[in-house]
Specification:
Layout: E1 36-37, E2 52-56, H1 67-83, E3 89-94, E4 100-104, E5 119-124, E6 127-129, E7 134-135, E8 139-140, H2 142-148, H3 151-156, E9 166-171, E10 185-190, H4 215-224, E11 237-242, E12 249-251, H5 252-264, E13 269-272, H6 285-295, E14 299-303, E15 325-331, E16 334-342, E17 347-353, E18 365-370, E19 393-397, H7 403-412, E20 417-421, E21 442-445, H8 447-459, E22 463-474, E23 499-504, E24 506-509, E25 519-523, H9 525-545, H10 552-561, H11 580-583, H12 590-595, E26 598-601, E27 605-610, E28 617-625, E29 631-644, E30 650-652, E31 656-660, E32 664-667, E33 672-681, E34 687-697, E35 704-712, E36 721-730, E37 737-739, E38 744-746, E39 755-760, E40 764-773, E41 784-793, E42 803-806, E43 810-817, E44 822-829, E45 833-843, E46 854-858, E47 862-864
């Protein structure tokens, strides 16, 4: 996408926002006042894309292309670029999964890349910072995480271990000295070297030891650890592909290179716990390459992203790839907690130490007191009488003020310890950091434990005894979606994510050389994706053993058919299923997948937009019975909650009904039968709806499900150019923007050129900058005077974020846009004069010939007064 032609390091370019791993995106800089946009933070500098994907015309070899022909295309590109005076620095070349190269060129030459004959498209090489799962003070029970997907049963009762299956891990490397992986690494390659940080030159071919990141070792352990902590496929072989150095980021072209290497090494499964949120176009090169990898025989699982607070349409590449398994994140069902006991019967209480306070001792007994009741809204938020709690452990309810204030008030009253209990379901971790420091132990317990302690203290003298023990405690949010897990759909209304797995509070392997040594607890979709990779390995092993090997492209469908959707995490007691465009088919289950003797295709339904109120969508589903007997399925429908809003999401009641061509479908052994399903959306306009078609068999075999989702209303009614739309230029310090709402003059030298700051509320198929004569409004010389055309744009991650489009005074004298790219003659500076830049944006899935699908805005008059040469 040729957005910025002359952006300097301090300027914020379109798509130059660093896109965080596992989907998290750093928020763009927001407008703070009418006349000046505040300085960019230091972390926002140097984010202009350094490199660009150049897609060439031929098909990659995995799609039938010939290596010799593709080599000729690459050489022709280099020769033509040189003939046009382009100084192109090669980075990487691709031919197995995607045909093209990645290159570095001067900012001013990016647009010229489109002029090179044979160039199909140009995309930015996105920066993907090193993933780092969210750490927790809670210690999870890994055994229960494995049990959530049935992997424990698959291992212990079905004898499945992943033996003979190769799982590729694209990440920060692996601690090869960790006993959990001894003798099982069969392929490895370091694409970057320790010193690589995303801004310098990678030095490939070094070792793949994960001695400075940790994330890769953790992810590999979930998929395939053996020993003290057992992963999903504990005897699978591993291919390790290191794409991160010791700090900073990697680039999406390096990710594609790693995919191609994994294919060459004969991997069966690839896990990618990395991605770019809000880049929801399946056409992005990393998403295309990942889908082609599936067609080439490798199952691909990828985290869908950790941008749950970013609203709908936040899923990112490569997880949005058409054939990739995009994975959502459910919470672990149990956690391990330290324990104390209470009189009179020694009841155990699981607790967590508060950050900022001394750790609780492992011995000793204290009398207990309390300062409120389970109805208190601001317990211990006001000073307590001096000496009133001397030598006692005081029970305090959460809420009304900070944990620090509660602990400080108790400490000032002489308390020897503080026990804070939750005012909502479940355990929690508190922080009491402050000045002066808290010098007594402060621990937290669940709401139910707090109520029990309250009642005992109210009934008479109660004591607590610290112990060195720990135990497993139920997590009330277990089996529910983690609040961080990203929403779909993708930009083309494709159903994403595809499926979910445990990712919240996962204890797995960690490098021995890092703290905590050996094992650590991380959370995120990064931790969910390797569960699915491991499950895929178990299924592959089972199918091979049965003499019915499964194609990589069929794995997602099998897992979706046999998954189980979960209740709404916002209030599970209401009985509604959570959003399909956030959990996909639901929780994966390997036992169901292995035992399934039937399947339904397609395994998911992307219903698109339902533009007309009262309209319907009819789909055909085919059931294939591979069992030895006839099976009759009863058809059913389960509606799931929908959503309204973009950045701020509001839950909607289930938004569709379903009817069937027949109430049952009978499928003879070894045969298939089809049924039609008609969906009638019932929700409000501009909502995303979804649910499940359910096939219940009469022989007690596995129930099969097909998730569906769609958009109610006119998808093109979602606006792109809302909020900020202004012309600006970098301030003198190069740290922010000065807004220029009136005609302005530019020399087009240095940083003295116009930039157009636009908030993109939704995806744009393309954005064009056209330059016209200010006096006549006509293109110069009766030709289409085009500054740039940028394709497949993301949306901003926040409602106040923006992207900057810069114009350097050059244009492509063009015969127009042909739907694939511009048919340019050449690019050159405009003569000095007065111009207006007209910006147009085609909406996702829009028709360029339909004026209602194209949004427009134009700049104030721009006077170009470049020095004469």
């Amino acid at each position: 996408m040729t957005v910025s032609r002359l952006l300097r390091p301090s300027a914020l370019a379109l798509l130059s926002l660093t896109l965080a791993a596992c989907g998290a995106q750093r928020a763009p800089v927001a407008a703070q006042q009418d006349t000046t946009l505040q300085a960019l933070s230091a972390g926002s500098e140097n984010q202009t894309p350094r490199a660009w994907f150049v897609e060439l015309a031929g098909a990659p070899t995995s799609k039938g292309g010939a290596r010799a022909q593709l080599a000729q295309e690459r050489q022709a590109f280099r020769d033509q670029a040189k003939a046009l005076g382009l100084k192109v620095k090669d980075r990487l070349e691709f031919e197995r999964l995607w045909n093209g190269v990645s290159v570095e060129v001067a900012d001013a030459d990016v647009a010229k890349l489109r002029d090179v004959p044979g160039v199909k498209a140009v995309f930015p090489v996105l920066s993907v910072p090193m993933p780092d799962g969210e750490r927790s003070a809670e210690t999870p029970d890994m055994t229960t995480a494995i049990a959530q997907t049935g992997a424990d049963v698959a291992q212990n009762e079905l004898g499945l271990t992943g033996q003979g299956v190769k799982i590729a891990i694209m990440d920060t490397g692996l601690d090869l000295d960790h006993p959990a992986f001894a003798g099982r690494v069969v392929a490895s390659y370091d694409f970057v070297g320790d010193a690589y940080d995303g801004t310098n030159t990678p030095v490939p071919g070094q070792d793949t030891v994960d001695d400075c990141g940790g994330h890769g070792t953790h992810v590999a352990g979930i998929a395939a650890a053996g020993g003290a902590v057992k992963g999903v496929a504990p005897q699978a072989s591993l291919g390790i592909y290191r794409v991160f150095g010791c700090a900073g980021s990697t680039d999406s072209d390096i990710m594609i290179a790693a995919m191609e290497r994994a294919l060459a090494d004969g991997m069966d499964v690839l896990n990618m716990s990395i991605g770019a949120s809000f880049n929801s176009w399946p056409e992005y090169p990393s998403a295309v390459a990942a889908s082609n990898l599936v067609d080439a025989g490798v199952v691909v699982a990828a985290s869908i992203g950790n941008s749950g607070t970013g609203g709908v349409f936040a899923a990112g590449a490569p997880g949005v790839g058409d054939k990739v398994i995009g994975v959502a994140n459910f919470m672990n069902t149990h956690v391990f907690l330290n324990e104390f006991t209470v009189s009179p019967d020694g009841t155990k209480m699981g607790y967590q130490n508060a950050t900022g306070a001394p750790a609780a001792p492992t011995t000793g007994t204290l009398p207990m007191a309390k300062t409120g009741t389970p109805a208190s809204a601001a317990d211990a938020c006001s000073p307590l009488a001096p000496g009133s709690l001397t030598g006692q452990a005081v029970l305090i309810r959460r809420g009304g003020c900070t944990f620090y204030i509660k602990a400080q008030n108790a400490q000032n009253a002489g308390a020897a310890a503080v026990v804070i209990y939750n005012n909502a379901a479940g355990p929690f971790a508190g922080t009491v950091t402050g000045t002066p420091a808290i010098t007594i132990p402060v621990v937290s317990v669940s709401d139910t434990q707090g109520a029990l302690l309250n009642n005992r203290i109210a009934a008479g003298p109660t004591t607590m005894t610290w112990t060195a023990n720990s135990g497993s405690y139920a997590n009330p949010t277990g089996n529910l979606l983690d609040s961080s897990s990203s929403y779909g759909l993708d930009a083309k209304l494709g159903l994403k994510p595809d499926i979910g797995a445990p990712g919240g509070l996962i204890r797995s392997t960690y490098p021995l050389s890092l703290e905590p040594s050996g094992y650590a607890i991380l959370s995120g979709t990064s931790m969910a994706s390797p569960h699915v990779a491991g499950i895929s390995a178990l299924v592959i092993q089972a199918k091979r053993a049965a003499g019915t090997p499964i194609a990589a492209g069929d794995m997602r469908g099998l897992l979706q058919n046999t998954a189980t959707p979960k209740p709404w995490s916002g209030n599970p007691g209401l009985g509604f299923l959570d959003f399909v465009h956030r959990q996909g088919a639901g929780m994966a289950n390997v036992v169901n997948a292995v035992k399934a003797t039937a399947s339904v295709t397609p395994s998911k339904l992307s219903l698109g937009e339902n533009e007309a109120a009262g309209g319907t969508k009819t789909q055909t589903l085919t059931v294939t019975n591979r069992s030895a007997g006839t099976v009759t399925y009863t058809l059913g429908h389960q509606g799931a909650l929908g959503t309204a809003g973009n950045y701020t999401v509001t839950a909607q009641l289930p938004g569709a009904n379903a009817s069937f061509s027949a109430p049952t479908v009978t499928v003879p052994a070894g045969s298939s039968a089809s049924v039609t399903v008609t969906f009638t959306p019932t929700g409000a306009a501009k909502t995303v709806y979804g649910g499940y078609v359910v096939f219940t068999p009469d022989n007690g075999s596995e129930t099969l499900r097909v998730p569906y989702a769609g958009f109610q209303g006119d998808y093109q009614s979602l606006n792109i150019l809302t909020g900020l739309k202004t012309m600006a230029k970098l301030n003198a310090a190069g740290t922010g923007y000065d807004v220029l709402s009136t005609p302005s003059t530019f020399t087009m030298q240095g940083s003295d050129y116009p930039q157009f700051l636009l908030h993109l509320d939704h995806f744009a198929r393309w954005i064009k900058l056209d330059v016209v004569d200010a006096a006549t409004g006509q293109p110069v010389h009766s030709q289409f005077f085009n500054a740039s055309t940028d394709e497949y744009l993301p949306r901003n991650s926040t409602a106040t974020g923006f992207f900057a489009f810069a114009w350097d005074g050059q244009v492509s004298w063009s015969r127009g846009y042909n739907g694939v790219g511009n048919t340019h003659d050449k690019r050159k500076p405009v003569p000095n004069g007065q111009y207006i830049v007209k910006i147009s944006a085609l909406k996702a899935l829009g028709d360029a010939a339909n004026a209602a699908h194209v949004e427009r805005w134009q700049s104030p008059v721009i006077t170009v007064n470049a020095p004469k040469k």
